Amino acid sequence: MPVTIKDIARKAGVSHATVSRSLNGNPDISDRTAAVIRDLATEMGYVPSAAARGLKTNRSHVLGVIVSRIDNPYFGEIVQGIEDTLKNTGYSIFVSSTNFDQNREKDVIQAFSEHRVDGIILGSVSFKQKHAALLTSYNIPVVVINNQSRQSFRYSVAHDDEYGARQIMRHLLELGHRNIWYLGNAHSRRINNDRCRGFTQELEAAGVPDPQAHVLNMDGSEIQDGSRGMGLLLQHDPLPTAVFCFNDLMAIGALKTLQEKGLQVPADISIAGFDDIAYSAYTTPALTTFHQPKFEIGAEAAGLLLELMLNKDAGNGHDIAFARKIRGQLLVRESTAQLSSGSEVSNA
Questions:
Q1: CA–CA separation, 146 vs 157, rounded Å?
Q2: Beta bridge partners of 63
Q3: H or E segment and range at residue 330
C-alpha cells in the first residue's frame, strides 16, 4: 500500500493537516518541524498524489499530445521538442495516436477531457470537423502542429511546406530534369496541397506543360505507399527522370522498388523526399530531402501552449490568434544527380 499523509502524521505524532502544510511549504509551520516532516516522508517513501493535488489546484499538470501514428519517426523528434520544453515546468505529457481512425479520434478527445489535461497539442492530425469542434468545446487550450483538419484553430505552428517543395523542385530543375513526378498523399489534405502547389508552380515557371498530369496521389504516406506508387510510375513511357515524394518514408519505399527493378538511383531516376527523418541519411543512396526543424516545431508548440495556459482572461488562450510558420532547408545528398543527355529511360 502506498504511504499516505495520515501514515506520516501517525509516525510523527502530529495532525495530518500539519504534515500537509509542511510538505506544501506553508509558512505557518516552523522550518524545524517542516524539515523533520519532509525527512520522515522521504524515509517512508511517500509519493505525493498528483490526482489529489489536481483536485485542490484544479490543474492536472498533464498535457495531451495527439498524433496520427506513434510509430512514424517524424513525430518522435516533435515529441522530444515538446518534452524538452516542458522540462522543469512540472508538466508531463500523455501521448496518443488516432491511427487515422475517426472513431478513435472521439475516444482520444474524451479520454483527455476525462483525465482533465490542462492543454492539448495536435500533431498533423486530420480530425473530422465535428470532432475538432468537440475538442474546442471543452474549453481546453489547444495548439495545432501542421493542421490537417478542416476546422480552423486559433493557435498553430506549421512548417512552410510550399516553400520546401519549391526548393526541392528548383534543385531538380537546375539539375536539368523536366519529366518530374510528384508522389503524394491524398489523406494529408493541407500538407499535400501545399507541397503539390510548390511542385506545380515551379514546373509552370519552368515552362513544363500541364504539371497536374504529373501528380500521383496515394492513399497514405508509409513506405509501402511509396513502393506501390513507384510501381505505378514505372508503367509510364518514358519513365520519369526524377520523382519528388511526399515524405521520406514514401521515398524509401520508392528506392526499394527501383532497386528491385534493377534501376539505378540517381543514374536512371533521381529521388527526393521530405522531412529529413533520421533514416534518410542512411539509405543507399543517401536521400536528398527537405529538413523540417521538427524539434523546434515541437518546442514552439509547447512554449505557446504554456503561454496560453498562463493566460486566464480568455477561455481558450489569448484574445489574439497566433499562427507561426517555420522554414527548414534543402539537404542535397546522393539520390539526385544531373540529368545526362539521353538518360531518359524508355519502358519499352
A1: 6
A2: 93, 119
A3: strand 329-331
Average pLDDT of the residues in 123-142: 74
pLDDT in tens, 240-253: 999 999 999 999 99
Chain region(s) in the chain for CATH 1.10.260.40: 5-48
Which numeric CATH code is attached to 58-153+294-327? 3.40.50.2300
What is the C-alpha to C-alpha distance for residues 275 and 329, in angstroms, rounded to an integer?
A: 10
Note the CATH number of domain 161-291. Answer: 3.40.50.2300
- Residue 191, classified by CB atoms within 10 Å of its CB into exposed (0-12), middle (13-18) or buried (19+), is buried
pTM over 0.90: no
| Residue of 109, 106, 102 whose CA lies nearest to 126 | 102
Output b/e per residue, 289-313; b: 16+ Cβ within 10 A: bbbbbbbbbbbbbbbbbbebbeeee
Tell me 339's DSSP state.
P
Residue type present at position 4: T
